[in-house]
Amino acid sequence: MRRLTAYSTLKTPLQQSLKAGGLSLPSLLSAETSSRARTASSGRFQTITTSSSSSSSPPPSHINVNGPIRWGILSAGRIASDYAKAISVADSAVATAVAARSYEKATIFARQHSIPTVHPTYQSLINSSDVDILYIGTIADTHAAWAREAIMAGKSVLVEKPMGLCESETRGLIELAEERGVFLMEGMWTRCFPAMKTLKQVLSTNEIGHVVYVQGDFGYTAPSDSDERFWLPNSGGITMDVGMYIAQFGRFVFPGGRVRNIHASGVAKDGVDYSAMASVMYERGEGEKSRGVVDDGMMSFVLTGAANTEERVMIQGTKGRIIVEGPFHIPQLLRVMYDEGRGQSKVVVHEFPLPDDPYNEEWNNPGSIGFIHQINEVGEALREGKTQCESYTWEDSLEVAKIVDEIVLQVRGKRDCVE
User: What are 395-414's pLDDT values in tens digits?
Assistant: First the structure.
């Protein structure tokens, strides 16, 4: 349900018996695959080209186009638990199998979420025939390795963010998925929310003019326990954790644009980026250039593990602005403000309540009921035989990985994955 309000003058502001099916970590992506990311023809910020997400073919023979999509859960962690809950609520999906680092953990998880099949290893789940798609929710250090194993086995994959530890890992997975004709998506669930569909529509009308810049913030108080994933040397830090949520807005508001440069500074703590301030300049896309918009687009944002921030995004146009109210990564409210003179605006408010929640907000992460939007969209894509989702394509993942790479490199002073 969506509510729309208009006003003037802005004031600031789910049990079946368990059966065992058939944790060895696969080798990491080969150096050869990883090295394909950064060809030198156009420098560090090369143009990204992949096939169109709009093309489709008949769905795989195991997909029941008239029934629920069968999900396999590869992990028994907190985020995976939230995802399994959301699947249980979605009419279009069902969780049919799970595997974890230990059979005991997987068995407990299956009982909690009424999942009928427990696999003793991740590889057993990957090789099984009782799932249509795998949700990979392991620690980020192993996302790419397990996604690669799944793609090699011909399995569709939804992998949590980040897809890879750097652009080269992400590109290697995308090239493999394209070669094998397998569905692959990075879990940027924010893009699947109804609010983002409306935001895209409003921007396309040019009612607020062309976008001059976008700015935002995302911060939370980082855990003090050094064993928490935030402090992992390869996948830890604020940028690898939440930076992609803001970085994805650049490609969204500057369609067809190209990253011209990225500048970042911040605070490194215990080997990871603790806080970061970044600015990204975009060369305009051909569509905007054809309308006479030639000045670069700008995006700036702050990330921090030192404080809980407002988590709001503002998109400034030449004739108005749009505010995505916090928490913007589960967007529920947009304020579209049309300029009527200096200091005066007509404001239209678009409200998008979260889906009905039978769990009464008993989630590890607030708003996780919103995973339903992504689950439904992925199911639709699979039934249509697509290898990408319209809302968040392979090109989107690559550009965001590039931005994240640069921020981490510039704040930490090193980036093991970057060549």
Answer: 999 999 999 999 999 999 97
Within 13 Å, how many C-alpha atoms sit on residue 105's CB side? 15
* C-alpha span between 124 and 127 (Å, rounded): 5
Residue 339 contacts by C-beta under 8 Å, 6 or more apart in sequence? Answer: 319, 320, 345
User: Alpha-carbon distance 110 to 87, whole Å?
Assistant: 13
CA distance 283 to 260: 6
Sheet of strand 133-136, all strands in order from the earlier edge strand to the far edge: 19-20, 117-118, 93-99, 69-74, 133-136, 156-159, 184-186
- In tens, the pLDDT along 131-158 reads 999 999 999 999 999 999 999 999 999 9
Q: How far apart are CA 232 and CA 228, in angstroms?
A: 7
Q: What are φ and ψ of residue 331, in 5° steps?
A: -60, 130
Range name among 70-74, 163-167, 174-178, 414-418 with the lowest pLDDT average: 414-418
Residue 84 vs residues 14, 87, 358, 383, 418: alpha-carbon distances, Å? 10, 5, 13, 20, 34
Question: Please, is 215 exposed, middle or buried when counting C-beta atoms within 10 Å of its C-beta (0-12, 13-18, 19+)?
Answer: middle
pTM for the full model?
0.87
Q: 204, 215, 198: which is closest to 335 by C-alpha?
A: 198
DSSP-H helix ranges across 134-272: 143-152, 167-180, 194-204, 238, 244-253
The tokens of 398 are what? 């690559």
The packing angle between helices 167-180 and 143-152, to 10°, is 10
